[in-house]
Amino acid sequence: xxxxxxxxxxxxxxxxxxxxxxxxxxxxxxxxxxxxxxxxxxxxxxxxxxxxxxxxxxxxxxxxxxxxxxxxxxxxxxxxxxxxxxxxxxxxxxxxxxxxxxxxxxxxxxxxxxxxxxxxxxxxxxxxxxxxxxxxxxxxxxxxxxxxxxxxxxxxxxxxxxxxxxxxxxxxxxxxxxxxxxxxxxxxxxxxxxxxxxxxxxxxxxxxxxxxxxxxxxxxxxxxxxxxxxxxxxxxxxxxxxxxxxxxxxxxxxxxxxxxxxxxxxxxxxxxxxxxxxxxxxxxxxxxxxxxxxxxxxxxxxxxxxxxxxxxxxxxxxxxxxxxxxxxxxxxxxxxxxxxxxxxxxxxxxxxxxxxxxxxxxxxxxxxxxxxxxxxxxxxxxxxxxxxxxxxxxxxxxxxxxxxxxxxxxxxxxxxxxxxxxxxxxxxxxxxxxxxxxxxxxxxxxxxxxxxxxxxxxxxxxxxxxxxxxxxxxxxxxxxxxxxxxxxxxxxxxxxxxxxxxxxxxxxxxx
Length: 511
Ligand code: GLN
Fold this sequence. Notes:
Oligomer: single chain
Bound molecules: glutamine
Largest sheet: 11 strands, mixed
Helix content: 25-40%
CATH architecture: Alpha-Beta Complex
């Protein structure tokens, strides 16, 4: 079965119902692609071939009877942060060696109940800490995108979707992070949709780097139960897909109240895809002046301006707004997130989960120390140290409490802005994907990746990234739309309208 892996989720669904192919055909085709390319991309930590084929056969049986859920028979990749019953769940950390959860996360359970077929567990930054998928214990992920000498040659030589005549690629690029495996897999057609999580940008930034779509819903939309915790007041699950409609379909499956997560909201789940008209007439779109940071890449500015122009031409009203505390978001995030991580990661003690290091005669303390020293990578250790420091008796008020106050001010900025506008348009990230090894030695530059995504996370608001343009190297740049709390419908609908106006068609070169 060739050709099916490039279809959208919506087209796969139609094909399944029209019996053009079976769910087993779809699973086989994707597994073949994964097995052919995983040595290169390293997008999957675990490939669940047998499970995928069993689930697909069960879907075919349901489809044959005219039954089945919203995504019956659709192959899905799962970020390895979601606990999956009896399937290795690593959070890309050595410390979770061999951990096979005895339970299923609420979000993945919803996916399987709706007919999703599990292809495997996707690589990521260790414990979701990172912006480039360079911190995984299971090795880095390679993006399917490559730089080309001239973006024009890509489009003009053979047409938008044919990259075969391109100049030789240079060094490999990162897919973004922390959901780097999810984004690379979707961009490389290894799965039509994948699950990601976003604490400060980890769905939106990799979607931007990989030229695809990813939405972080409002904090409280999806249950966090069974998702390995990084920073509990920020973590949210969300879908990554190749277009807005597929994200909308997935989001309707993923969300909903869960008694097992006290922060999940008791709200009806809209049919997000049904709300997609693309009509933005009369919508007020805010452009925050504080996001025009000094030294901003001219191509990103141009993409942002063009996005605003396209929305205006489609009938939206563009409104200048101010989010005055934006510049404090990144420092506040890098206090709050490590603080919560230091607390959440205290549970990895060598007793309850995964790895245990040390020798037979060791004291309990020595076993803890050796396990944590061997089990956590550098980035995770750094964040545990920062988090422990900002929560310690002498510094709690000076750092953690102050960061919480700043967080409230940032949320207030958004609240006031949303009195005037329906959605906010910004770039997703300050750069295109960079080469592996380019930024990993400089943590500040790495943390700057999140400058446009972190404020939304601190305020708990929904944000989507869609491809905005190609830069001069032929790499995708993302546009972000931010919405009011629990107004994913507007976010998705404006994104859908903009997606049609931009008509971004370029696909990555691949292996
Ligand atoms: N890049 C950010 C960080 O390293 C965000 C990560 C995330 O959203 N999980 O913390």
